[in-house]
Amino acid sequence: MLEELREWFGQYSSSFYTGDASDDPNYALKEEHTYRVAENSRIIASAAGLDEAGVRLAEAIGICHDVGRFRQYRDYSTFRDADSVNHASLSATVLTEEGLLDPLEDPERKTLVRAVSLHNVYRLPEEMDPAALLHARIVRDADKLDIWRVFIEEAAVPEKLRSSAAPLGFPDTGRCSPEIVAALSERKMLRLDAVSTVDDFRLLQLSWVFDLNFAFSLRLFRERGILSSYSPLLPMDLSVTRAVEALDVWVSERLAEAA
Ligand SMILES: [Fe+2]
């Protein structure tokens, strides 16, 4: 199932490329993101002690989680759900329409669809089937870890080669909104509707660290140097620097607790 899924995804994602230099980097970004999320899901599931079938299901969910992104970009030229469609629901629709999950039986099939559908919600529902909850937590951590990589790598390439849709259309003003900095200092996970600049969006991404579910994910956050790669991208502003330092301290404290 996993091998077939990977093969299908390779063909499906390549079918969207148009040869247009303004569109293709957006598809390439999601294609690469998908493989990386699947890999992150595999290692997180493994570290969490899932058996082989569970690890393979986690990897399959990683492959499936963003399949809706391709149609979203093709039809709306954006990755911003509020201006287009809920891409997680669209992923679930694509998987069903393509008959991809037919070889899978319940309860795995239901778990996969539920985890994919909920991978982008602000908070997971309180009442959830335990397997779906576990897999939703895995894919959410795996996704966050790779989105951090995407934004670090995007900042390092020349502007004309960047994905036009990744920054969601926020203006690059070189500033952060004071309310966003304050909310980050209060260890709140920020909401997209409060964001108004590219740097606000970067702080929002950093606030996802408060939502990580596994100590292993937090360890990857530290080991991959995510915070130290984000810091130089942010405005040289004392309140921002302090908020980022406080976040670093929070990570160290959580890691020490988990050790
Ligand atoms: Fe997603």
What molecules are bound to this protein?
fe (ii) ion
Average pLDDT over all residues = 94
Number of helices: 12
How much strand?
under 5%
The residue ranges in which pLDDT falls below 50 over 5 or more consecutive positions are none
Main β sheet profile: none
Distance between the termini: 36 Å
Our Rg estimate from Cα atoms comes to 18 Å
Shape: globular
Spell out the helices and strands N to C: HHHHHHHHHHHH
Q: Percent of residues in helical segments?
A: 55-70%
Query: What's the number of extended β-strand segments?
Result: 0
Structural class: mainly alpha
SSE blueprint:
Blueprint: H1 2-14, H2 24-47, H3 52-64, H4 68-76, H5 87-97, H6 108-117, H7 130-156, H8 178-185, H9 198-207, H10 215-223, H11 226-230, H12 238-258
Fe (ii) ion (FE2) is lined by residues 65-66, 87, 119-120, 143.
Question: How would you describe this structure to a colleague?
Answer:
The model has no long low-confidence stretch (mean pLDDT about 95). With about 260 residues, the chain is mostly helical. Helix 3 (about 50-65) crosses helix 7 and helix 8 runs parallel beside helix 12. The protein has 12 helices and no strands. It has helices at about 1-15, 25-45, 50-65, 70-75, 85-95, 110-115, 130-155, 180-185, 200-205, 215-225, 225-230, 240-259.
